Amino acid sequence: MKIKTIYKKCFIYLFLIFSLQYCNLKKGDLKQSNIKNDSIVLWIKHAKDTSYSISKRNYFLKQSYHTIKFSKKDTLSTRRLASIAYQYLKLKDTLRFKKINKEAFQFAQQLKDSFALADIHWNNANFYKKKEIYEKSYYHYNKAFIYFENINKQYFAAKMLYGMSFIKGRLRDYSGSEILIIKAISKFEALNKYKSLYSSYNHLALLQKDIKEYDLSLFYNKKAIKYLDRIKPNSELLEISFNNIGIVYQEKGEYTNAIKYFDKVLKNTNLKAKNIGRYARIIDNLAFCKLLNKDTINIKHFFYESLKIRDSIKNKGGKIIAKIHLATYYLKIKDSVKSLQYAKEANLLAKKINNNRDYLSSLKLLSKIDAKNANRYLEKYIIYNDSLHNAERKIHNKFTRIEYETEQYIEKAAFLSQQKMFILISSIGILITLSLFYIVKVQKSKNKNLQLETEQQKANEQIYILTLNQQEKLENEKRIEQNRISEELHDGILGNLFGTRVGLGFLKLNGSTTTLNKYQSFLNDLQDIEKEIRDVSHRLNDNIGNIEIGFSSIIYQLLNKRSKMGNFNSELLISDEIVWDDINKIIKVNLYRILQEALQNIIKYAKAKQVTLHFTIENGNLILIITDDGIGFNTSKRNKGIGIKNIKSRAVKLNASLQINSSINKGTTINIEIPLNN
C-alpha cells in the first residue's frame, strides 16, 4: 500500500508539472469560433418567441441550423444543435426533431461532451413523455441524470429526478415517485430554486391525494404556495394550487371548503379571456362539487358551458370529464336516459384516446346507471384494471432494471477507472523517477522567469494606473479652469462692459444726426458684444456637466488620436449604465491596453475607413465590441502578429470571453465580455 501511495503522489506531482508546462505553451490562446455566434443566438431566441408565426419560427430555426451545419463542429455548436432540436419538438415537427437530435448526439459522442449528451437525452425524454411512451422517457431521463450528476450540474440533475418522479406517479408507483421527488427537492433547496420547489411540492401533494393522504396533500399544497411568495407574482400558479386544494377538499368530503377555493380562482374576472381552458375546468369542478353537496341550483349551466368550451378548444380529456359529470348530474336528478347517453359518450371517447383513468371511471358509472348491464360493465372494469396493473408492473420492473443497470454501470466504470489509473501509474513510475530531477530544475528556472515577468507586468500596470489617474486629474483641472473662465467672463468682463455701455448711454451728446446715429450704432454693437460674451459664458458653463471625464475621456482621446494617425472615421458608444468609478482599475488598465493593441492593428493592417467602439453592460458583464470595415483576415490561419496574442493574453487575465470574427474584405469584429463580479 505504501508503494502504491508513493506512485500516486509521484503521478500527481508529474501531472501538475506537465500541466504547468502545457499552460505555458498555450498561454494566451483562446478557442475561436468560425460561426456567427450572435446571429445564431438571435435566431434561436426568435424561434422561442411565441409572438412570431409558426412559419417564421421555422424559418429562424432553419437559418440557425444551416449556419451551424456548415461550421466547425465544437461543443458550442453541438449544444446549439440540441437546442434547435428541442425547439422543433415544441413546434411539433417530430421529423426534424429526430433528425437534428440524432446529429447532435453523434457530434456529442465524438466530442465526449457530457453536457450535450445529457441535454440530448433530455430532449428524447420529453419527446417520449409527450407520446406517453413512459418506459423510454424514463430511460432517457435516467441517462440524462447520470451525465448531469457526473459533471455536477445539480439543478439539471434535479430536473431529471422530477421528470422520473412524474412518470412513476403517472404509472401509480407512488412510493417510487415520492422517493425521487424528495431527492429533487433536496437539490432544489440547496440551490434556492423556488419555482422548481413550488412544482416539486405541488407534485408531492398530488401523490398524497392519489393515495388518499388528504391532510398531507393539503400540507404540501400550502407549502408549495409559500414558495410562490419568494418569486415574481404568478397568479396562474396560484390558481392551479387553489384548484388542487379544492379537489383535495372535495375528495375529502369537505365540500364547503372546496367551493371556497374554486370561488377564489373565479374571483379573477379576466380568467375566461386569459385562460379559457382553466376557466372551463374550474366551473366544471365547482358545479360538480356543488352537486356532491346536494346543491343543484344553476349548476347545469356550468356543466354545459364547460363542455362547450372544451369541445371548441378540442380538449378531449376535458370533454370526457365534463360528460362524466353531466352523467352523474342526470343520475342525481333521476334522468337515466341522458345520464346513460353522456356516460356512454365519455366511455367511447376515453377508450378512443386511451385515457385509462376516465375509461375506468365511466365503466364504474355505467354500472350504476344501467342496472341491466351492470355486471358486464363491472366485468370490463375488473379485466381492464387488471391489465393496467400488469402493464404497470412490467414497466416498474423495467424501471428497476434500468436503475440496477445504472448502478452496475457506475460501479463497473469506477472499477475500470481505478484499474486504468493503477496501470498508468505503474507504467510511468520509472519515467517519473528518471525525469523528475531534470523537470524540477527546468521548472524552477521557468518559474523564476515567470515570476520576473509577473513582477514586470505588475509594475507596468501600476504605471498605467498612475497614468490614468493623472489623465483623470488633468480632465478635472480642465473642467475647473473652464468653470473659472466662464465665471470671469460672466461676472467680470461682461459686468464691466455692461457698466460702460450704460454709462455711455446716459451721456447727452450734441452733434449732427450722422454722428448721433453712429453713436447709437456703437452702443448697439456693445450690446451685441455683451450678448456674444454671455452666450460663450453660458456654453462654457453648460458644457461643464457634459464633459466626459475619467476613463470615458481617456478612451475618447485614445480613439481620436489613433483615428487621425490611421486616417479613419471613429465612433465611441458608451452605455449610460456604465459607472467607470465602480470598475476595478486593473480591468480598466487591461481594457486600455487591449484598445491600444486593437487600434494599432487597425492602423497597420486593416486599411479601415470606419471604426466603432461600443461599451455596454449585460447580466453583470462589461462588453466591448470593436468593429472596423477594413480588409479583414482569415481567422483559421495562425496569426504570427503579437497584437492578437497580447489581446488574448489580457482577456485570459480578466477571465473574459473573446470572440474574433473576420473574413477577407468584410472587416473585423472583436467581442470581449468581462465578468465584473470576479
Question: How would you describe this protein?
Answer:
This protein has 678 residues and is mainly alpha-helical. Among the domains are: 409-546, no CATH class; 551-675, 2-Layer Sandwich (Heat Shock Protein 90). Helices cover 76% and strands 5% of the residues. The chain contains 24 helices and five strands. The protein has helices spanning 2-26, 37-48, 54-69, 75-90, 94-111, 114-130, 134-150, 154-170, 174-191, 194-210, 214-228, 235-252, 255-266, 271-274, 276-292, 299-312, 316-332, 336-352, 356-369, 374-506, 513-546, 551-566, 585-606, 642-653, and strands at residues 569-574, 610-618, 621-628, 657-662, 668-675. A five-stranded mixed β-sheet has the order 1-2-3-5-4, with helices on one face. The longest helix is centred in the middle third of the chain and has 133 residues, at 374-506.
Brief overview:
The protein has 678 residues and is mainly alpha-helical.
Q: How would the blueprint of this fold be written?
A:
Blueprint: H1 2-26, H2 37-48, H3 54-69, H4 75-90, H5 94-111, H6 114-130, H7 134-150, H8 154-170, H9 174-191, H10 194-210, H11 214-228, H12 235-252, H13 255-266, H14 271-274, H15 276-292, H16 299-312, H17 316-332, H18 336-352, H19 356-369, H20 374-506, H21 513-546, H22 551-566, E1 569-574, H23 585-606, E2 610-618, E3 621-628, H24 642-653, E4 657-662, E5 668-675
Parallel strand pairs: 1-2
Antiparallel strand pairs: 2-3, 3-5, 4-5
Helix pairs in contact: 1-20, 2-3, 2-4, 3-4, 4-5, 4-6, 5-6, 6-7, 7-8, 7-20, 8-9, 8-10, 9-10, 10-11, 11-12, 12-13, 12-15, 13-15, 15-16, 15-17, 16-17, 17-18, 17-19, 18-19, 19-20, 20-21, 20-23, 22-23, 23-24
